[in-house]
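Lab meeting notes turned into a lecture example. A postdoc, R.K., suggested we walk through two folding results consecutively so the class can see how the record format repeats. The first protein's sequence and structure tokens come next.
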Amino acid sequence: RDMENVTAGRSDSEKVIEIMKKEGGRINQKDLRGHFSLSEAKMSLLISELEAKGRLKKIKKGRGNILVLKD
């Protein structure tokens, strides 16, 4: 949980972007959720907001999603 210290004081949206940058711009939605103490529904909402803003792209993969950072 040392990731939380790095991203302290930022909004959840900024944390998502920050973590994704550290992961090389791609992350599995389930893995991303491991960095947060958010419910699955809240995480999904947060990702949808970021996608609507054009910050990331969600790719369906099986029963999960791969998230890709957009430039």
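The second example is placed directly after the first for contrast:
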Amino acid sequence: SRPKLDFEDIVAMATVNAARALGDETRGCLEEGKCADLISIAMPDTHISPWQALAEATEVSGTWIDGNRVY
């Protein structure tokens, strides 16, 4: 059987590992000196899985582009 991926593994695949695969060491993680484009969402309930929270999210509570908050 195939190994099960946890939430942290999947996030790393979509962020830091994706940036490395593209040869871009300036992106992929939140670290001083690196570019950061991200959003924060209002969590509907703290007692559900992160995936369910993302699926049920209806409100973006913040947006940052190149590390600068724009919303």
